[in-house]
Amino acid sequence: MAAREHYLIVGGSAAGVAAAFALRRSGFEGQVTVVEAGAELPYERPPLSKALGTGEAASLRPIVPAEDYRAAAVGLRLRSRVDRLDPARRTAWLCDGSALRADRILLATGASARRLTIPGSDLPGVMTLRDADDARRLAVAISAGGPVVVIGGGFIGMEVAAAARAAGCAVTVVEAAALPLVGALGRPLAELVTALHREHGVHVRTGASAEAFHGSGTVGEVRLSTGERLPAAAVVVGVGVVPNDTLAAAAGIRCDGGIVVDLQGRTSHPWIRAAGDVTVQPHPHLATAGRIEHWDNALRQGAVAGAAMAGGLRVHDGLPYFWSEQYGLTLQVLGRPRTGDELLLRPGAGPRRFLALWRRGGAVVAAAGLDTVRDLAAARKLIETRAMVSAGKLLDPATDLRLLARS
Q1: pLDDT average, residue stretch 291-319
Q2: Contact 322, 330 (CB under 8 A)
Q3: Which domain holds residue 85?
Q4: DSSP state letter for 290
């Protein structure tokens, strides 16, 4: 009797778990094993930053309940790390010296927080936020009362700032660019989000970077490139992530700022697919292949890759989507605006509520909104159908986007 095929998924990330269950939904009857280096049941990562100020940071939300793995006959090996891949023998070598043979492999190894290499960066109290252990340490630091200095005004940095401020900490955000989030949202929207934070008492230093951390035993001060010195009981470094592609590169898989894949998650080796934050992917909403480092993308890409491993024909081309929670308000971004796109800010925009749409060649291609959930649902339909709508109509306060989308 022939042995059942064995498909191995490296990484209990959103992409890895989505791929495992997509394999079952697509009819794969062989053995499925998910290998995860952490000790926790694979959990959702977006709530880590969003719950910091509520005291719930240590309460992890599983991606799927433990019983679902058993029901779907998906093997889950926690506290196991794959250290080496041998494509010629189709074998994965684990950190304990054992080996797993696999007929196919999916790498869902994610990304790690980028760290600063400046003096004092190894002091206790200088933290990143990427996993549950990070969130627990940061929650303790926030509960101690601050002051908190956030290095980097990206989405994670601004979520941490909002959570720390909501908990009563003095907070300063240090951003090298002209404004926090300006690269992701453009200047008009970045100004509104920055104004929201300033309304809540966050101090924002722009055009500056951290040059050193000082402290005796633990961090106590941040020295900026401007010469300013900021008191700090905790420092959160949020300056981007680095893809965990070392395993793939060592196995000879093509990497270029991440594991290079196609729309079905195929890598340069037929034995290996990849999905999630670790991948560089082509996408109809990107000008060039790149990494889409968001939870929704990881789930979708993982599901497509899993289905494709089982013989499915799906491709990963869904609309990129991201959301952020700040001061009880939901900021959502649909699509990926590009340089040269026309930004249209709907009337009535302010720091607590706004809706913006981007046009390219007359078509609606992206949208972003704060506290505008229903209008963004309509904007999604306009983007997905590449609706041709005039700027005047989109800017007219009398235009109901929901009626426009239905028409």
Answers
A1: 94
A2: no
A3: 6-37+79-112+241-309
A4: B
Q: Within a 13 Å sphere around the CA of 386, how many CA atoms are in the beta-carbon half?
A: 5
pLDDT tens figures, 202-261: 999 999 999 999 999 999 999 999 999 999 999 999 999 999 999 999 999 999 999 999
Whether 228 maps to a domain, the answer reads: yes
Mean pLDDT of the chain, nearest integer: 94
Cα atoms found within 13 Å of the Cα of residue 211, Cβ hemisphere only:
10
Nearest to 139 by CA among 236, 42, 214, 240: 236
- Is 49 among the domain residues? no
pLDDT higher than threshold 50 for residue 1: no
| Integer angstrom CA distances of residue 122 from 117, 125, 156, 174, 293 | 9, 9, 21, 19, 26
* Angstrom distances, CA of residue 197 to CA of 147, 153, 171, 188, 236: 16, 11, 10, 15, 17
- pLDDT band of residue 53 (cuts 50, 70, 90) is low
Tracing tokens 């060649």 back to the chain, one arrives at 361
Q: What is the pTM of this model?
A: 0.93
Pair 119, 102 in one domain: no
Taking the CA atoms of the chain, what radius of gyration do you get in angstroms? 22
Dihedral class, residue 4 (left if φ above 0, else alpha if ψ from -120 to 50, else beta): beta
| 3-class DSSP state of 401 | helix
Q: Is 197 helix (H, G, I), strand (E, B) or coil?
A: helix
Q: Bridge partners of 345?
A: 356
